[in-house]
Every structure is written in C-alpha cells, then in structure tokens.
C-alpha cells in the first residue's frame, strides 16, 4: 500500500511540473505547443536531466546550467503543492488508508468524482502560480471554466447540486464585485482585480454558495495575517500589491478537505 501511494505521489509530482509549464506559458509569449522547455534568459533548451521535478532544481542549486540565472522558487513550490493536494484528494475520494491493508475498489463514480475535482484543483494551482508570478489570473483558468463546474454538478460528478453550482458562481462573482466597488468608492483606488472575482466564481461553481463564503472568510483571514507579516519582514510600503488569488485557492482547499469537521 505504501509503495502504491509513493508511486501515485510521484505521478502527481510530475503533474505539478506540467502545471508549472502551463502556468508559465499562459502568461508569456511561449506557445503551448512548443515541445521543449527553454531557459527564458539564454534560450537554451532544457534537457530532461535538468527537468526532473524538485531534484534538478536542488542539484542545479536553483540556477540555469548554462547562464546561471536564478530559477524561481515557484517551480518546486508548485510541484510540492500539487503532490500534497492531489495525493490528499486521491486518499479522500477513494477512502485510501495506510492503516488498513485491505484491497480497495475503484468504482466508476469515485473515478469520475476524482477526475472532476482533479480538474478543479489543477486550475486553482495554475491560478496560484500565475498570480504569484505576475499578479494575473488568466480567464481561461477562471471564468471560462465555470460552465465545466456547472456540467459536473448537473451530472453529479461533484458534491453540490446544479442549482447550488449556479448560485455559487453568481454569488462568488457578485460578492467580490460589490466589495471592489465599495472599496473604490470609499478609498478612491482599486482594491481587488477582476481576476479574483472570476476565480471566486469558479470556486462557487464547484463548491456552492457555502463554499464561497467559507473560502472568502478563510482566504481573507489568512491573507491578512500573511500580508501583515510580509510587510513587516520585507519593510514594504503598505500600498504594495499582494495577490489575493492564492489565498482564495487556499481557502477553497481548506474548506473542501475539512468541511465535514465544521
């Protein structure tokens, strides 16, 4: 059982490496169809032995083999994050427990449920990466995928009803839209980006109105705490832009895995 879980985790680690590529290329001019990864600085092709998840980053000491430019910490971070979330998702959906040695069955409904949430968390991870890197969340990984959440709910591939999915998407977008308008009216400056609204709409389509509320509450509290510490440690100005998307993704993840404990 342990060996099987290690194998599954390694597959998810490789998937995290792929999500890094998708996220990076979605906010740059590099084509999705370009087969080989290249260094953004020296344009040299990155060979397979320098592209092993986490291992290559450590061996290369976070620097390009050719030009020695620093390789972003986001690469191993996203790979580890993906491994942890997807492995936890696998264990949750298939009721996988290392403490029992019984052979468990892969039922079709469980496989479909896993696939639906696998897509959802993959998108959240991509949005986290792009927002941390460039303070942007591409619409293709937020509002454009809301219909996918609605379809999944309609066919009972996620835990909420079709109506809850619709209401969640609407509520998710409107609550941040109203908040942004009020903030701009009173503060005379922008406070939230459209990308955050669209991401919360996507979260609502998969988690429903209650999920939106929990996500916003958890994301805001955690974001506030981390934001304060970040400003104090780095001595940045209070007006520094801090991405909110990753905290929404974190809030949604916490709610999904721990909602039954509430």
Verbal overview:
The chain is mainly alpha-helical and 262 residues long. The protein has 2 domains: 1-105, no CATH class; 108-262, no CATH class. The protein contains 8 helices and no strands. It has helices at residues 2-26, 55-59, 74-93, 108-134, 146-154, 162-187, 194-234, 245-258. Helix 1 crosses helix 4, helix 5 packs antiparallel against helix 6 and helix 7 packs across helix 8 (245-258). The radius of gyration is 20 Å and the shape is globular.
Structure keywords:
262 residues, 8 helices
Explain the layout of strands and helices.
Blueprint: H1 2-26, H2 55-59, H3 74-93, H4 108-134, H5 146-154, H6 162-187, H7 194-234, H8 245-258
Helix pairs in contact: 1-3, 1-4, 3-4, 4-8, 5-6, 5-7, 6-7, 7-8
Largest sheet: none
Sheet-strand content, in percent, reads under 5%
Overall radius of gyration: 20 Å
Determine the number of helices (DSSP H or I, runs of at least 4 residues): 8
Taking all residues together, what is the mean pLDDT? 90
Q: What is the percent of helical residues?
A: 55-70%
Shape verdict: globular
According to DSSP, the number of beta strands is 0
Distance between the termini: 30 Å
How many domains? The number is 2
Q: Low-confidence runs (pLDDT<50, min 5 residues)?
A: none
The helix-strand sequence is: HHHHHHHH
Indicate the structural class: mainly alpha
């Amino acid at each position: 059982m342990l060996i099987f879980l290690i194998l599954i985790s390694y597959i998810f680690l490789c998937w995290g490496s792929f999500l890094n590529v998708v996220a990076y290329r979605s906010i740059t001019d590099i084509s999705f169809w370009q087969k080989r990864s290249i260094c953004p600085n020296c344009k040299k092709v990155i060979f397979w032995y320098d592209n092993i998840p986490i291992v290559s980053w450590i061996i290369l000491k976070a620097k390009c083999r050719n030009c020695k430019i620093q390789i972003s910490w986001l690469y191993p971070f996203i790979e580890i994050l993906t491994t942890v979330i997807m492995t936890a998702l696998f264990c949750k959906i298939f009721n996988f427990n290392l403490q029992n040695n019984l052979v468990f069955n892969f039922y079709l409904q469980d496989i479909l449920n896993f696939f639906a949430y696998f897509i959802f968390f993959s998108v959240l991870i991509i949005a986290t990466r792009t927002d941390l890197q460039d303070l942007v969340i591409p619409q293709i990984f937020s509002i454009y995928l809301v219909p996918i959440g609605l379809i999944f709910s309609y066919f009972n591939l996620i835990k909420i009803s079709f109506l809850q999915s619709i209401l969640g998407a609407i509520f998710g977008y409107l609550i941040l839209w109203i908040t942004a308008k009020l903030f701009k009216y009173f503060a005379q400056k922008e406070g939230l980006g459209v990308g955050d609204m669209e991401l919360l709409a996507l979260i609502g389509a998969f988690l429903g109105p209650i999920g939106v509320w929990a996500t916003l509450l958890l994301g805001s509290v955690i974001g506030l705490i981390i934001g304060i510490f970040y400003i104090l440690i780095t001595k940045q100005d209070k007006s520094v832009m801090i991405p909110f998307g990753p905290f929404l993704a974190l809030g949604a993840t916490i709610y999904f895995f721990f909602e039954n404990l509430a």
